[in-house]
Design brief:
Structural class: alpha/beta
Oligomer: single chain
CATH architecture: 3-Layer(aba) Sandwich
Largest sheet: 7 strands, parallel
Distance between the termini: 24 Å
Strand order of the largest sheet: 3-2-1-4-5-6-7
CATH topology: Rossmann fold
Number of domains: 1
Shape: globular
CATH superfamily: NAD(P)-binding Rossmann-like Domain
Helix content: 25-40%
Strand content: 5-15%
Number of helices: 8
Number of strands: 7
Length: 287
Amino acid sequence: MSSNDPQPPFPDQPQPMPGLTDRMEPRPDHGEQDYRGSGRLADKKAVITGGDSGIGRAVAIAFAREGADVLISYLEEEEQDAQQVRQDIEATGRKAVLVPGDISNAEHCRAIIARAVEEFGRIDILVNNAAHQDTLDSIEEISDEEWEFTFAVNIHAMFYLTKAAVPHMKPGASIINTTSVQADNPSQELLAYASTKGAIQNFTGGLAQMLAERGIRANCVAPGPIWTPLIPATMPEGKVSSFGEQVPMKRPGQPRELAPVYVMLASDEASYVSGATIAVTGGQPII
């Protein structure tokens, strides 16, 4: 374990949803300083939802440094973060395309893919990463609207985006879906979120079989506790201060620690990897 990895306790730092990177203490590490590419994704064209912050931001930076052009989708409220990612992508000499909007809307999902095809001509990598969660202690506290919105963002959008993207993918293309340790080990206060993460894992397993004959791979990454704006924006202050201490490594992961897994799954090196779930959980096993 690096002595530089931030450890709990963290300062209380409540934020309104969806949260911004610059308001976090300590600031998440997306690999801006340390990630070094080696051409593993040379000239590939990628779409990343939730690419403005957290895991999606780290993946966008890594993909660009590996040689990919990148479209990121994000909420309009996250424009500040998105512009920072644009700078990081363009600093590598790769093309950055920014598409703000709400992926709970099916038409917006289709518009994201249409924009990618317009800009890039094809799609080689689709990273379905954006997610919504809220912490609610009883089922009575979960409104119908909250339940439906969580599913709309986390799993319905994944279907709409994938369905629109596949016709523009060639053999060797890769779909990477962000599930969670919550899919196998759900927390009661994240009932809606954990339910969608289980659905994502199941969706990916079926999709991998469905697309195999077309030469398109589909895999999941299952993060454990990762230090992103989603945490202070959706969790009670006491849980933020102790965030990550429950896993064997006793700390949350940094977004940069996820990026190499997405790079591997997106690359041609993973040509026989499909239908897999790769855990990045700080030592917490998934079943």
